[in-house]
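TASK: fixed-backbone design
INPUT:
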């Protein structure tokens, strides 16, 4: 979760997080259109009370992921892998799947103008936070981490070089996991677009996780292809580990005294993502 590219249609706010933007009334967001992340977002209760979530088909790891198959999970920023897939990662590890975690960026732009978290520090801190979180999940030994070093907040403009990097390490039997190509954050959308197009071209299985969509979308929202959605249920123990792992991302969950900015991840955002379910989209005919 990081910075968006400045644009005429987007007015930065000085207080708060850089990725939050105020969209002028006469224009949609230049990249994500009507999926912009604004305000507090949809309440957790709205999602909890939506019966449609309960009736989604279940994602069964043992049936859908052969134990020998390698899973490549793409995180636009170090933390997305746990926020979105902390439960899935635990179940994949238990199923015996080798996992490659790809940090698309190192999330260096999450704290503009901060003396506490300048980009050069975040470049080290955020990948370390991710490694600590994987240890808390109990899966660190099964995960190989790879960094693509694209520019945080600007993945949308680097899609071509991103795609070319995939050729170097994706293998023919890999299963790909990415953020939703319409997740609402420009880096998440660009990551989803690149990875799903690679999967389509090479006929690979590809799943997309909802992260910021929980913020801007509403229950039964027509902007989400719910007919392709699968619900992964977490046990109480898996959810507890995921919640504990999220506390490792200290740079994202604590206020910045040097700028007086609140935490990048609000308590509401964390609560919304810390539920006993994760939702994945499988769009076979992208
Ligand atoms: Zn992110």
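OUTPUT:
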């Amino acid at each position: 979760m990081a910075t968006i590219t400045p644009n005429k249609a987007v007015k930065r706010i000085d207080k708060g997080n850089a990725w939050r933007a105020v969209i002028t009334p006469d224009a949609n967001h230049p990249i994500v259109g009507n999926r912009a992340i604004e305000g507090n977002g949809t309440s957790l209760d709205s999602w909890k009370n939506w019966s449609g979530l309960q009736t989604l088909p279940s994602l069964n790891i043992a049936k859908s992921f052969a134990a020998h198959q390698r899973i490549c999970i793409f995180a636009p920023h170090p933390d997305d892998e746990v926020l979105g897939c902390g439960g899935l990662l635990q179940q994949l590890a238990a199923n015996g799947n080798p996992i490659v975690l790809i940090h698309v960026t190192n999330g260096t732009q999450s704290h503009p103008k901060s003396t506490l978290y300048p980009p050069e520090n975040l470049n080290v801190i955020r990948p370390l936070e991710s490694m600590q979180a994987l240890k808390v999940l109990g899966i660190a030994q099964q995960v190989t981490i790879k960094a693509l070093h694209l520019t945080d907040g600007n993945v949308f403009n680097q899609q071509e070089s991103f795609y070319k990097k995939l050729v170097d390490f994706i293998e023919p039997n890999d299963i790909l996991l990415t953020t939703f190509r319409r997740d609402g954050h420009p880096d998440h959308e660009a990551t989803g677009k690149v990875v799903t197009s690679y999967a389509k071209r090479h006929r690979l299985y590809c799943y997309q996780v909802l992260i910021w969509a929980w913020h801007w979308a509403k229950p039964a929202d027509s902007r989400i292809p719910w007919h392709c959605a699968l619900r992964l249920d977490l046990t109480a123990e898996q959810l507890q580990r995921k919640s504990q792992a999220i506390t490792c991302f200290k740079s994202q969950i604590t206020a910045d005294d040097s700028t007086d900015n609140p935490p990048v991840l609000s308590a509401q955002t964390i609560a919304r993502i810390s539920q006993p379910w994760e939702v994945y989209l499988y769009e076979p005919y992208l």
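COMMENT: The longest strand covers residues 143-150.
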